[in-house]
Amino acid sequence: MKPTDTSSPDYFHKVVDCQWACPAHTDVPEYIRLIAQGRFSDAYIENRKSNVFPGILGRVCDRPCEPACRRGRVEDRPVAICRLKRVAADHRDDISGRLPKAPAKTNGKRIALVGAGCASLTVANDLAPLGYEITIFEALRTTGGLMRTNIPQFRLPPKVLDEEIGYILDMGVDLRLNHSIDSMQKLLNDGYDAVFVGTGAPRGKNLEIPGRYDSEHIHIGIDWLESVAFDHIDSVGRKVLIIGVGNTAMDCCRTSLRLGADDVKVMARKPRGFFKASDWELEDAEEENVEILVNHSPKDFVIEDGKLVGMTFELMEYKIDEDGRIDRGTVKGEKVIPCDDVILAIGQDNAFPWIERDIGIEFNDWECPIVDEQTMMCSRDGIFFGGDSAFGPKNIIWAVAHGHAAAISIHKYCQGEALDERMPIGLHLSSQKMGMHEWSYSNDYDPAARRLMPHVDLKERFKKIDIEVELGFTVEQTIQEVERCLNCDIQTVFAASLCIECDACIDICPVNCLTITANGDEADLRARLSAPAQNREQALYVSQDLPQTRRVMVKDEDLCVHCGLCAERCPTGAWDMQKSEVLIPYAVDEASGDQPQPVIPAA
Amino acid sequence: MSYISKPKVAHPNMPRNSLGLTARDYEGAVSTLCAGCGHDSVTAAIVQAVFELNVEPHMLAKMSGIGCSSKTPAYFVNHAHGFNSVHGRMPSVTTGASAANRTLTYIGVSGDGDSLSIGVGQFVHAIRRNLNMCYIIENNGVYGLTKGQFSASADIGSKPKKGLPNQQEPIDPVSTALSLGATYIARGFSGDKEQLVPLIQGALLHEGFSLVDVISPCVTFNDHEGSTKSYAHTRQFYHHVVDTDYIAPAEEIKAAYAEGAAMPIELHDGSKIVLRKVYSDYEPTSRASAFKYLRERLNAGEIVTGLLYIDDSRGEMHDLMGNIDTPLSEYPLDKLHPGKEELKKILSRYR
Question: Read out DSSP for A163-224?
Fold first, then answer.
């Protein structure tokens, strides 16, 4: 193999699995260290820089970082990254003085944001400090979009939303609530310099089977959740069936339990392992005694005397092949399950009835606008999309990432700059050596198991709809959980010219990730390392030829616990532990023209 | 040394031996030697060797004297027996231990100071007795623990960090052992575990005295330019003569060997070592030709490595003395201790 090119920022960035997996590239190890030092406000600001809503995301993020976490490969359970984010938010001091501020004078450019959800708010957060005049149009009577209407209050208290959205609105954003945009053309006629569409995927999928329109007790999940959020609905029947087993279904079943239901069944068409819901949301629902019935495919609604009394399901059987793919299934029977209400939670679609189809905005076959993934601009110049409205339903953290990207584009568009000439992501390395065998980070491996989130007592939590179930980590839990982080951003950096091939690093490595051997192609090398490198997702770090024998040092990044012992045992300093800071340009950096600078952490 | 010990976390797919142990289970305390010390690599090679040989930790005895090398038994197989003896006296203590219990596997770790200066007499007589042990000399040419004075194995002309080059003739443990009639003589290098591990495995299994002289650079006092025991010098003048493969008892010889170059030797437990002659005219079973070759290459400044001499025909100490197999601790007391009356009879023979 050729020597690994570490000059590309991507190489070391990818080693930080959590940060790489996060669409907004939040610097997870850095904020966990800040929490470990009790610097909660600093940890909050570090989070806010990239993900804008640490308090919200610390509760309800889809956390792509956790399945990626290296700890999950070394042991079996990842660091509770999301829970720690909430710790930073829960324990922060007043940070209002540290937030970005709008300049006294605007730059005269007017930007319209449609929808007051996470994508639009991120755009506002990035552009208001640059002097843009931001107007947000929201059809509902309040902000937050799906974060407020679709996520129940017992998971995400309104106070948390208000606080973090307030930070953005307080920068002088012009918020127009109850202001539905019915025509893109009319909006464009108002002469805005740019328009951003962050209207989400607001249409819940329907289930067109017999009886669908014969009862008022059949609801569309996201609409039903919205009605609950706005107090239009405050009760539900005793027996409730939820159709679908995604995250919305989990919110629907748990909400039902709080509105009077005592027999809630989630009906899944496929077996376990093919559910769309995240594991932790399933766990939380099952803790509340929600029953999940697998292999039940809806057939029709049973209506007697004009009243919904049950639903007929086909009982399915599936074959799963060697690669884990499931077939279409065969029907093995039928069953009627009685119910009072049915909630459909089988997905959602984009809907743009308010965008004229003849104004230069092209749509694809799925009625989604065609949007550039880098610039977030659609086929008509000056109109940008983000969040679920851009590429279909994803999640909050993707919407935030889209918002940051769109903000850069909008700024460039308004300044007459080329949208695709963007500042590259940078990477800064700094040695963490403090003394003979002393590192700036807690390098010892802590074998503690993942801490479990404490919950409100099962009886207590159903008394009111807004009792937040998760209590947040205690101090003791936080202290233990932060030590589980492997500090993957403290990189093992190798200088081949200094190596004397004494094998000290290889002998001390607890997880056998180092090998000095004759070079070969990748497949060959992977097979003959100290431990076979079977995870092909993870890179091999191959050195230049070593001075004495012309062999190469090979590191399998997969299971490195970043304990620094290779560097500690190295007599010549060929290995060093260096912190990699990924430098991600935001709109503010593009505006200043300076590449973002590393924060040299205070010693 | 390090401030933290090697974390207990391990690779999830670590191989296990027939006892169900991983190589990590054969580790010891964290090393307090200098970072980069060759001895730590020898320690790792020992760990690998005993792991692969499925040695039961409680059937291993680690013996040592004084010096950097003699600290190292603390760094492998925590659950083995151990005796850290007086300077240079490890061979006598091992002789005593072996006399009392010949069922244990004895591994002695010594240094060039411990074996070739203060303990040279002990070293010589352990060979003469053909004591059944694996005797490792971690050879770096200096007294590292007392800050780098030349030892008895320093080569003529080798330069110290400060002061004048060495002028005295070195004692070469390999030719010394050869002339004394040792029955398993090998030389390795701490920087080449591929060669070293099977050499140690053969030495552990050989019945009789097995010497493994390991060039193990002192990274602090003898790894500079002009030193003849540095990593760079050893690599430059490294000369494989006979490489060795260890083949476990039930295993077939799988590797393809060139005709005439491979020499399988069956050991007492049914395992084999296959000697691979890199130089076909070298004869590792002939003392005379081995001695001649070694001296020639030594004079040419080469460091000859590999399994250099083996004689599997001579009995070890217990065989020569006709001792019983049972450890004395397990032997019935009435037989072990003949009683006052018997003693009187014996003594009367000498009156």
Answer: HHHHHHHTTT-EEETT-----HHHHHHTT-SEEEE-----EEPP---TTTTS-TTEEEHHHH
- Residue whose structure tokens are 């603390």: B74
**pLDDT above 90 for B277:** no
Same fold across A102-202+350-414 and A204-346: yes
Q: β-strand B149-150 against B142-143: which pairing, if any?
A: antiparallel
Task: Give the CATH fold of the A102-202+350-414 domain.
Answer: FAD/NAD(P)-binding domain (3.50.50)
B130-150 tens-digit pLDDT: 999 999 999 999 999 999 999
Closest C-alpha among A546, A542, A545, A573 to residue A555 = A542
Structure tokens at A133: 């005049």
Residue B316 backbone zone (phi > 0: left; psi -120 to 50: alpha; other: beta)? beta
Q: Is the pLDDT of residue A376 over 80?
A: yes
Domain ranges of chain A: 10-97+425-482, 102-202+350-414, 204-346, 490-582
* Record: contact B40-A559, CB cut-off 8 A: no
Helix, strand, coil content of chain A in percent (nearest 5): 30, 20, 50
Q: Is B223 on the interface with A (CB under 8 A)?
A: yes
Report the residue of chain A nearest B45, measured CA to CA.
A507
Q: Which of A500, A491, A496 is nearest to A571 (CA)?
A: A500
Contacts by residues A535-541 (CB-CB < 8 Å, ≥ 24 positions apart) = A535/A73, A539/A4, A539/A11, A539/A14, A539/A15, A540/A1, A540/A4, A541/A4, A541/A6, A541/A492, A541/A494
CA closest to B3 among chain A residues: A437
- Provide, rounded to the nearest whole percent, the portion of chain B with pLDDT above 70: 97
Closest CB to B11 among A503, A507, A511: A511
Domains of chain B: 23-329 (3.40.50.970)
Task: Kindly report the CATH class assigned to A490-582.
Answer: alpha beta
CATH topology of domain A204-346: FAD/NAD(P)-binding domain (3.50.50)
Q: pLDDT class for B193, splitting at 50, 70, 90?
A: very high
> Which pLDDT does position A242 carry in this prediction?
97
Q: In a 3-state reduction of DSSP, which class is residue A113?
A: strand
CA distance B148 to chain A (A): 17
Which chain B residues are within 8 Å of A559, Cβ to Cβ?
Answer: 11-12
Q: State the burial class of residue A90 (Cβ atoms within 10 Å of its Cβ: 0-12, 13-18, 19+).
A: middle
* Residue A504 to residue B12, Cβ atoms within 8 A: no
Q: Is the pLDDT of residue A603 over 60?
A: no
How far apart are alpha carbons A138 and A384 in whole angstroms? 17
Nearest to A531 among B6, B13, B220 (CB): B13
In one-letter notation, the amino acid at residue B154 is A
**Do B232 and A504 count as a contact with CB atoms less than 8 A apart?**
no
pLDDT digits (tens, 9 = 90+) for B309-340: 999 888 999 999 999 999 999 999 888 888 89
Tokens 């001075």 belong to residue: A547
Name the CATH topology of A10-97+425-482.
Fumarate Reductase Iron-sulfur Protein; Chain B, domain 2 (1.10.1060)
